[in-house]
Amino acid sequence: MSINNHLLSFIQCEYLRLQEQSGEARVGSNEAEAQLLQQQLSPEQAIAQRATLLLSTAEKNKLLAPAKHYRQLSIALLSFFSILGGFATVEVFSGVERASANFFWILLGLLGVNALSMFIWLVLIVWPNTDNQSGSWLMSLQVWLSRKRSQDNNALQAWQQAISNTGGQQWHLAVISHGLWLAFLSGTLIMAWLLLSTRQFDFVWETTILDGNTFVHISQWLTTLPSLLGIELPTAKHVIASRIGESPQDPDELRLLWSNLLLSSLALYGLLPRAIALLYAIFVRRHHWNKAAPDFSTPYYYQLKMRLSPDTIAEGVVDNDRDSRVPTNDFSASNTATIAKLEQLEGVCLAGLECDGKWPPLLSELGLDYLSPTVLSVNAIDRSTREQLLTEASNHNVHNILLLARFEATPDRGIVRFIRQLNDKPASLWLLLVEHRTQQTSQQWHDWLSAACDAQLQPQQIARLSREMDNCEK
Amino acid sequence: MKSEVNLPLNIAVVGHTNVGKTSLIRTLTRRSSFGDVSSSPGTTRHVESQVLMVNGQKIVRLLDTPGFEDSIGLFDAIEELDDGREKLGTDRLTLFLNSKEATTSFSQEAKVVRQLLECDVVFYVIDAREPVLGKYQDELRIISLAAKPVFPLLNFVVAENSRVDQWTTLLKELNLHTSIQFDSVAYDFFAEQQLYKKMQTMLTNNWHQPLESLINHRLESWQALLIAAANCVATLLIESAAFRQTITGDNALSSSADQLQQAIRKREHKATLELLALFQFQPDDYGADLLPVSENSWKLDLFDPETLKLFGVKATSTAAKGAAIGLGVDMAVGGVSLGAAAALGALFGGIWQTGKQFGREAIAYISGERYLCVEDNTLRLIWRRNTALTLALRHRGHAAQTQIVVDKFQSKETAAEKQVMKYISVARNHPEWSNRQGFIGSTPAAKQNSIAALAAIITDQWQ
To answer: How close are the terminal C-alpha atoms of chain A, in Å?
Structure first.
């Protein structure tokens, strides 16, 4: 098999695929992929390059072995078929009695089966077999024979898979069958020439029920192509003179003319069409092999494509964080102690920090009905309400500020700054986080404790209240 | 691609802290490894970029920024720098960047402001579960100073406590009429397409063509992904159906059954990992406990009758006596096997294949060989739950931090399932398709054709 470089490259990819899919990880794969990413190749090129980079020389040579075996097998088979062709010719001529050879019978014997198989092949080309099964037995045979000589299943499977993936299997089969027929017919032609050179045959024809002119017409039709080459061939007169029982005037000339027709018919109606079909099949097979490409509908190649030709690339950090984050202090608050403390408060200003829903909330729903806020309450949801609350906090009547906040809110720096401002006021600040269904409670609690610490609150100043707070719903 | 614009289009992804900016970029780029995501404020401390490519060309650059944390304070700081002279918004932002505050109290916000000035487009990410507060309005006012096209993106819209209407009203009041709903956790491919399409209509004509190529490329990639996933499920089904375990002796039924069950569990697990990898989810990213699979199998065992029930598959009496659930003993006698072989012949039109199949079955029959294979109901279950898993993965954003929950699954036989089962019966007659280690010899073309045809049916069903 003349190895098409494109196909060989695809076979390497398939070999690597079979190995990687069977769980064999490749050393250097990440480095190779990083290197390929720099080169801006198409996915097909990058995948082929990756295989080239990752396969060792020994493995690449191993992949050439099936082609070598195939070549050896081909030479053996071609030789065998040419010898077979020769034997077939001898067999056909051996039936000739008393050196009178029936020309049409011999021609049918030498070319009949060939013509029939050629006809079947043409029919299959026009109406192809859609199941793509053709050649399966041949592939099996090839694999079986190769297996006898090679131990590497993956190398064979890679070949098998690659060729069947290209869809050129039918044409590969055609190349093989035309090649074998060509070898057979070459043997036939050479042996026919040898026999005609060394033995004497009187070519005749005969019929019982057909009109004599039929064979005259057939022979004249057969001479059409060879006559174009200027070969001397039997004319109608010669054909009539060759009918069995006739006594031709110049038997030597007749023998030569009929021999010319036989040999040229073998060459032009046997070998030539096969050679043309072979060249065509080689051409189409090459076309298929040149199209050999990874099938991106399979998960393996899809993932490889995504890695080697990604849709997205990370460019990394553009504007770095120069300030390292100050670790928060170890800060732990006790819920029960703080809430118990609230019961003893007097002069409470109930305040909200970005509280949602109706304001002020019903204290009974929060379980805080023991509190009796004495000052107008404020919910700090924007700049003006924050300022209003800070003003309220400065009021002399306010001794305690109970600041309600949503537990699930993110305690950002803005919140921390505001709590710190409020904490700086003469009144005591109590931060009560109302918990209302949240998933990551421990992380959230930790974030609030960090925020409280940053806002310079004491552990007893913060607590969380796990209550359903319906009026805080939207 | 000919374009008069400087590619890529730089998009600054900004917003309050903890609204899911990094998550959004993770989902838009399908990279769960991008940046750091946590529920704590200020997780992203630097500006990091990720680029969307089309055929090697950079089309869009997404710049992840630290979140605004103290926008009320920031706005005040910018206002305080005002010396009373008439200035453009961009000049005011530049003035702020040159001020002391930009390197001290508002160093995080300064990074955002810098990107606002340098970018082409702003994505303002909103946590739609949050109440509409004054600090967010201040953020929008600061952003408006940069005089860049702003696209408000409402994140977490699928959450039950989301307040899309309240937010949309506020945005309209601020003259931002084109808000986009894009949930970075509950991913919707068409919402992503909508995002780029809306950008196309809002930006100048020059950006139309690059964005069009991005939209088309994303669509092609998405379809290619679905096809690859369908191929993965089809291969799993075909190989599981083709799997045969020969019963070697009279007492070896249960050990053979164990072996077969183990092999099928392992095969399904392989497919699960492959599906996760295709959708670019890494089991390690989520911890061992966050997948519906553990160790070597799904948490719901394939051969547990309860699992069958859950997926609406009735355990039938076809399970062989003495064999475990989900397995059938096929004696390779006339009826089923040969009938299926004939059906195969009819389907593929290949006399050769049919003949070969008859031959193989006949030899098995004569030699009295018995083998175990996977029952139809189990294959039906594999089909249903892997379809459900794929559906979950398709709608999972790369920012999702919770366990993949497969809770939506069909419990009735669909037309697609009927077709799938047809291919399964074909595969059952091809033990060589099971891809067992060491097998070699026949052309894989028929198996490939079968997988491709089945994958096409699966893709149709999924779409």
So the answer is: 76
Neighbours of A389 (CB within 10 A): 24
Tell me which residues of chain A, numbers 307 to 346, contact chain B at a CB-CB cutoff of 8 Å.
Answer: 309-323, 325
- Please report, rounded to a whole number, the percentage of residues in chain B having pLDDT higher than 70: 72
Contact between residue B51 and residue A312 where contact means Cβ atoms under 8 Å apart: yes
Which chain B residue has its CA at the smallest distance from A169's CA? B445
Ranges assigned E (strand) in B106-176? 121-127, 150-155
Is residue B423 predicted with pLDDT exceeding 80? yes
CB-based contact A144 B441, cutoff 8 Å? yes
User: Tokens 């409280």 map to which residue?
Assistant: A452
Show residues of chain A in contact with B111, CB under 8 Å: 319
What is the per-residue pLDDT across A226-269, written as a single tens digit (0 to 9) for each? 999 888 888 888 888 888 777 777 888 888 999 999 999 999 99
- Give chain A positions within 8 Å (CB) of B448: 164-165
pLDDT band per the 50, 70, 90 thresholds, residue A339: low
| Residue B337 reports pLDDT greater than 80 | no
The model's pLDDT over A314-337, given as tens digits with 9 standing for 90+, comes to 887 877 766 555 555 566 666 666
pLDDT at A154: 75
- Inter-chain contact A447–B40, Cβ cutoff 8 Å? yes
Sign of CA dihedral A137, A138, A143, A144: positive
On the question of a cis peptide bond just before residue B8, with omega within 30 degrees of 0, the verdict is yes
A161–chain B Cβ distance below 8 A for any pair: yes
**CB count, 10 Å around CB of B355?**
12
Contacts of A14 in chain B (CB under 8 A): none
Q: Are strands A400-406 and A375-380 parallel, antiparallel or unpaired?
A: unpaired
> What does DSSP say about strands A202-204 and A312-319: parallel, antiparallel, or unpaired?
unpaired
Count other C-beta atoms under 10 Å from residue A352's C-beta.
24
Whether the CB of B213 is below 8 Å from some CB of chain A: the reply is no
Residue A133 and residue B442: Cα distance in Å, rounded? 10
Query: Per-residue pLDDT tens for B267-300?
Result: 888 888 888 889 888 765 433 344 444 443 455 5
B232 in contact with chain A, both atoms CB, cutoff 8 A: yes
pLDDT of residue B114: 93
Residue A76 is inside which H or E element, if any? helix A57-94
Query: Does the predicted interface ipTM exceed a cut of 0.90?
Result: no
How many beta carbons lie within 10 A of that of residue A197, not counting itself?
A: 8
Give the span between the Cα atoms of B148 and B154, in whole angstroms: 19
Given a contact cutoff of 8 angstroms between Cβ atoms, the answer to whether B66 and A319 are in contact is no
- The tokens describing A334, both together, are 């006790």
Mean pLDDT of B318-333: 42
CA-based R_g, chain B, Å = 29
Cβ separation of A382 and B137 shorter than 8 Å? yes
Q: Does A413 touch chain B (CB under 8 A)?
A: yes
Say if the Cβ atoms of A383 and B48 lie within 8 Å: no
A142 part of contact set with chain B, CB < 8 Å:
no
In this structure, what token pair is assigned to residue B157? 């819209």
Question: Residue A249: CB partners within 8 Å, gap ≥ 6?
Answer: A241
Judged by CB atoms within 8 Å, which residues 210-269 of A form the interface with B?
none
Contacting residues for B413 by C-beta, under 8 A, at least 6 apart: B380
Partners of residue B151 on adjacent β-strands: B123
* Cis peptide leading into residue A294 (ω within 30°): no
Task: Report the amino acid identity of residue A113.
Answer: V
* Residues B47 and B39: beta-carbon distance below 8 Å: no
| Average pLDDT of the segment spanning B229-258 | 81
Chain B residues with CB under 8 Å of A319 CB are: 46-47, 111, 114-115
Q: pTM value? A: 0.79
Q: Judge whether A188 and A86 are in contact, CB under 8 Å.
A: yes
Q: Is the torsion defined by CA of A103, A105, A110, A113 positive or negative?
A: positive
